[in-house]
Amino acid sequence: MDMLVIRGGQPLRGTVRTSGAKNAALPIMAACLLTDGPVRLSEVPKLADVDSLSQLLRLLGVDVEATGPQELSLRVIDRQHFTAPYDLVRKMRASICVLGPLVARRGRAKVSLPGGCNIGHRPIDLHLRGLEALGAQIRVEGGYVEASARRLRGATISLAGPCGSTVTGTANIMAAAVLASGVTTITSAALEPEIVDLAEFLNGLGAQITGQGTPEIRIEGVAALSGGKYSVIPDRIEAATLMIAAIATRGEVTITNIQPTHLESVIHLLREAGADIEIEQSGEETRVVAAGRRMLRPIEFSATPYPGVPTDLQAQLTALLTAAAGDSTVTDAVFPNRFMHVSELCRMGARIEHRGDGVVIRGRNRLSGASVMASDLRASAALAVAALAAEGQSVIRRVYHLDRGYERLDLKLQSLGGQVERILDSPDSIPGSDPTAFLKAA
Ligand code: EPZ
């Protein structure tokens, strides 16, 4: 298992390119089950989650091949299989995205229930209700969802949940409805750019989807889809994490392959806190320059569904605000218990208190390096931000969480001058941790 050793205090400077969006690439890959035609995807990030989904798709009879550094070619070669086993689904919840495409194309799916995870209770009732409305028979037994249908038929389905619309639920139902007979209308659909990307991808294969990016998506069912080519949108969460790291270290970083329109609420929030964010257009290319030139102002925000501040940035923003000139308040309306990073940040000297539904971050605080443990993907990114800004050396363990969703963040940070080293996790390998060092030095 790898860990990151980060020596903080170095302002990040330079230019870095964002990879393709994990949360767009995964449902798009799963949707390849809907067609027999070959699909070529570019800007697919090289991530552990992409590897896990490729493994699952292979089990389901899809030939998945890397045809370039960020390119995958996918083609269904065997339609006999319909089971997504627990061992793969537990590694990555996005595996649930195969459910809709499997029922729609193969008439049958058996997918392990993903269960809870470190960011809280994550039910899939809305996915199941949506598929039932499309005419699927659903049974939950032995930890698996079994769904079957001869042919799905269009319906009107609301995907509103107690904490907003469901993102992968919208992906699942939209993908399933593409091959249903008649028209499906999803109301209270998720507005996330990754849903728009999936709809554009499916339309490129011959689907008839309109309204993506609005709360009402209309899908006119078609008999079959073709193959095609598609390029995945840039990862807005990775881009914003890099912006936050630049600001936290009082550096200046230019980010390319970024769509600032996907980050409006975040850019607004960071500017409100006093960070400098410039959007530059040079010919076809849009670049965002993020800089931290002064002490930040404290702010108050709640993570909400798109177009709000994403829950996937809540942890990184919490880490950033430890250095603000006063107390900030943060809540998470999407995953109200997503605060596992708080106790690790406190190990680095942060003063964060749970209050009501969220946390209060006491500002004016220079963090100090410590040994910390990543508990989930975005929590590990928050720890990396904190470690880069802290005084001294930090060791972040369980970096496999980070590798699930960030394409070699360590290398990208290094290219910006960050003192980040990836080493094999063993107490002997931590620079400066050799207990006999003082003897050798003597
Ligand atoms: C997606 O998860 C993302 N994952 C998550 O990214 C992200 O945090 C989340 O959306 C919210 O933006 C992918 O896109 C692969 P939801 P998803 O269903 O779809 C409740 C990351 O770090 N809910 O939109 O699983 C749920 O409990 C991650 O990259 C129901 O009540 O999230 C939550 O409170 C982690 N019933 C809210 O809705 C359901 O059937 C939103 O969840 C489904 C969800």
Overview of the structural elements:
The protein is α+β, with helices and mostly antiparallel strands. It folds into two domains: about 1-20 and about 235-430, UDP-n-acetylglucosamine1-carboxyvinyl-transferase, Chain (Alpha-beta prism); about 20-230, Enolpyruvate transferase domain (UDP-n-acetylglucosamine1-carboxyvinyl-transferase, Chain). It is about 30% helix and about 25% strand. It has a four-stranded mixed β-sheet, with helices on one face. The model is unreliable at about 435-440 (pLDDT under 50). The chain binds ligand EPZ. One of its GO terms (cellular component) is cytoplasm. It is an enzyme of class 2 (transferase). One of its GO terms (molecular function) is UDP-N-acetylglucosamine 1-carboxyvinyltransferase activity.
What is the oligomeric state here? single chain
What fraction of residues sit in β-strands? 25-35%
Give the CATH class of the largest domain: Alpha Beta
Strand tally is: 26
Helical content band: 25-40%
Any ligands, ions or cofactors bound here, and which? ligand EPZ
Neighbour order of strands in the largest sheet: 24-25-1-26
The largest pleated sheet is described as:
4 strands, mixed
